[in-house]
Every structure is written in structure tokens, then in C-alpha cells.
């Protein structure tokens, strides 16, 4: 199945939609043998389009490479018997059924962990199994709303907005990978598997920095600030003579370099703007003064020139521009397989890098020995 840091690891991916499949894909990218089991009608995301290729949506194809797949009806005795055979071969199970579903079928963690003591079971769920919201179904946008993420996303004075990516689902998938790797490390000592509990709600709450840290300290409810950072300024999108540019000025030295480059060194000496804290307090005064100077510059070239002298700045690019950028290609963040293009693995290992071996929809019945 190819090299990789996880070569030899066998993963039974019983999940669908996003968080669980992303976890399985990451493990597969790094060498695990991942067998994806879908219901007879297939993962729901096969229909989440357009666009479609050969009747399968891009959404599905973006989350299910480096897996072989088969269909089983786990609600039926034959499917249950077969999946137990696969569990006996697996090191890791990833599933995100509604809490209680697999237990109802007699194939949940509670029923099988004594039978397969070395098995690591990764459960991706909305809210976990217990507590006031325990066993409730969870969805990315709903968790963004409940966790406070939407409340701090959007323009000042505007309505709360969903982040334009399924950030909670994706972070939950990444947290699931972290949990699996932690459990694998511990299994080397104990020889035992364990339950890895990755809940969307917990992941949503975990994303609240720095708003949570701010609230813990001063008790003031965080507010929406548009593109601006609540603690740092200028950490914001500013208009130039051509396009918007995002400036991520994190310290006094960078602010001095910025002001010198755009021809207003006096701003860096002004007591209202001389320190990070004062710049944040007086941001409403500072922004128009900076944009007045920036009007004389072409944005993309300005961003390049500022980065060259140590001032973080970036043009605001579209998705298609980002995916075609020379650095994206240099970093191997676009994957090309016959009939498939996707986003590459962001974690680079020097000796055992990620590999791309199987396009989505590769059939399979068993683990490779």
C-alpha cells in the first residue's frame, strides 16, 4: 500500500459526511490501510453537489481518497457479522453514527471492546454521549451558532455569520486524528485500545481563542470586529490603491517598518500608536490614516515588498487564485491522480511523507495483508 508513517495500520472507517471521513483520509494519506464501509445507498455526501463527476459529488471526493470502499447494511445481521470480522483485523475504528445506533445493532464500543481489547475506537459525535446535550445530533453550522463562533464572526454592528468553511467539522476530524495517534502511542505501553471521544461541540468551544481568554480575564462579552483582530492592530484588511490587503502587524518593530515603507514614519512615534496596546485602543483613528497612505500603492506588489522586509501582509485572494498560486504547487498542496484532483496533506514529514495512492471510490473487500 506504499510507505508512510502509519504503514501497517489498519483503519476501518464506518463514518460519513465530514469529520470522520476527514480523519480517515488523513490517516490514509500517511500510510494507513483504510477500508471505508458505506451503507447500500452510499455516503450522503455522494449527492452533495453540484459539481458531480460520474454521478458523485466533489464534496465526497474531497474527503475519501486513500481508502478502499465497500457497501454493507449494518442494520442487518449479515452486515453486522461482516463488520465484526473486519473489526477483528483492524487497529482503529472510526465511526460517527448517532449515539446509540451501533449499540442498538450490537456492534458498538460497549459490546465489542472486551472481544477486541487492542482495538482503538474513535467516536465522532455532535455533543458526546452524556451531559445536558448528550447524544444529540450535531451539525457544523449549528455548533458554530451554539459555541459562540458565529457571535464573533461578521462585521461590527452586523449580524452573526457562519464561517464560510465547515471549520468545526474539519477541526473535529483533526482532533480525532490526534486522539487516535495518542491512543496508538499509549497502546505501545499497555497493549490495550481505548475509546477516543471527539465531539463537534468540544471542538467548537476549543476554537474560541482569544475571545475565551479575553472573557475569562475581563468578563466583557466579545464583539464582532469584521476582519480586525480584537487584541492587535493593524491586524485587519486595509484598502490600497488597487486591492484590499490584509496586514498582520503583531509588534512595534513591524509597525515601524510598515510606517517607514509607506512614508509615514511619524505614526510609529505618535503616542497613540507607539505601542501595540495603544494601537489597539486607538484603531478607529489609525485605520483611516494608514489607508490614506496606502492609496498610493498597488496592493499585490506592496504586500510582496512588505513581506520581504519582515512585515506580514497578504493580498486577499479568491479560492481559485490560491489553488493555482506557485507556492501552493511548490508545497505540493494540490494532488493529481488519474481522474482526481484534491487538496494535499498539510503535514510534511522528512523521511515518511504523505503519499497519494488511491483515488476515491476504489473498491475493496478486506484489509491488505
Describe the structure.
This protein has 369 residues and is of the alpha/beta class. It has 2 domains: 10-207 and 329-363, 3-Layer(aba) Sandwich (Rossmann fold); 235-239 and 244-315, formyl-coa transferase, domain 3 (2-Layer Sandwich). Helices cover 37% and strands 15% of the residues. It is built from 16 helices and 14 strands. A 7-stranded parallel sheet has the order 8-7-6-1-2-5-14, sandwiched between helices. A hairpin with a 2-residue loop joins strand 12 and strand 13. It holds the Pfam family CoA_transf_3. One of its GO terms (molecular function) is CoA-transferase activity. Keywords: Transferase.
* CATH topology annotation of the largest domain: Rossmann fold
Overall geometry comes to: elongated
Low-confidence stretches: none
Radius of gyration: 24 Å
Instruction: Give the rounded overall mean pLDDT.
Output: 96
The largest pleated sheet is described as: 7 strands, parallel
Could you say what the CATH architecture of the largest domain is? Answer: 3-Layer(aba) Sandwich
Fold blueprint:
Blueprint: E1 10-13, H1 19-29, E2 33-38, E3 52-53, E4 56-57, H2 58-61, E5 68-71, H3 77-89, E6 92-95, H4 101-104, H5 109-112, E7 120-125, H6 140-146, H7 167-190, E8 195-199, H8 200-206, H9 211-218, E9 235-239, E10 244-248, H10 252-262, H11 266-269, H12 276-281, H13 283-294, H14 299-308, E11 313-315, H15 319-323, H16 326-330, E12 334-337, E13 340-343, E14 362-363
Parallel strand pairs: 1-2, 1-6, 2-5, 5-14, 6-7, 7-8
Antiparallel strand pairs: 3-4, 9-10, 10-11, 12-13
Keywords: Transferase
Protein name: CoA transferase
GO molecular function: CoA-transferase activity
